[in-house]
Amino acid sequence: MIFAIAISIFCTLGSPDETMQVAIQPLGAVPAKSIAAVKQGLVRTYGIEVSILKPVALPKEAFHAPRNRYRAEKLLTFLGETPGSYAKVLGITARDISTTKDGHKDWGLFGLGQMPGNACVLSSFRLGRKGPKTRDQRLTEVANHELGHTFGLDHCSTSRCVMADAKGSIKTVDISTGNLCGKCKDKL
Ligand SMILES: [Zn+2]
Ligand SMILES: [Zn+2]
User: Fold this and answer.
1) Which residues make beta-bridge pairs with 99?
2) pTM for the whole thing?
3) Ligand 2 ion: Cβ-proximal residues, 5 Å cutoff
4) 16-187 is classed in which CATH architecture?
5) 134-179, pLDDT tens digit by residue?
6) Residue 67 DSSP label
7) Which DSSP helix (H) or strand (E) runs through 145?
8) Which-ligand-closest: CA of 112?
């Protein structure tokens, strides 16, 4: 019985390899060079097959008018309904995104991923501040982080691991190596 359960969880999560199909879904206008950077980062980190889908408009039902931004958990539901046989779908938007977190009703985010699951979403909106890394470098790291969550990886206590909790701070993103640490790689 336990064996059967373990098998079914494994099949749901999947393991990253070159046969796994992951789609990038641009939500609204996203620069092609940003999407290309994210794709390259995902292929390098997880060794998966990445397709880039045609952009679609952000879903109206996810819009949070009081703050002029989009609710990330609703974007995940939307991305989960993407047609096609993709194991996972990663949404990218230039608009601001938020969710309810740690007692904050509407907390702005860099990204959000199901853990585990099939959908994650990133926003470049908060990643452009001056610093040692470019917006696209940061976006690529957030992509690797959020996709890691979909594979069941939790936050990592190794501070420079890409799975470290950014806690909403660009500094945390900027000290990261951008790669998975050995412990996180072993869990995949
Ligand atoms: Zn996280
Ligand atoms: Zn780690």
Assistant:
1) 107
2) 0.91
3) 156, 158, 161, 163, 181, 184
4) 3-Layer(aba) Sandwich (3.40)
5) 999 999 999 999 999 999 999 999 989 999 999 889 999 999 999 9
6) G
7) helix 135-150
8) 1
